[in-house]
Amino acid sequence: MKNINSMSDAAQLLTRILRFLEIRPRSEYEVRTRLSRYGSTDEQTTAIINKLHSLKFLDDQTFVRYLVDSRRSQGRSTRIIASELARHGIPREQIVSSLGGIAQDRATLKKLVVRKSHLPREKLLTYLARRGFAWDLIREALSGYNDSINRNS
Question: What is the pTM of this model?
Answer without folding.
Answer: 0.75
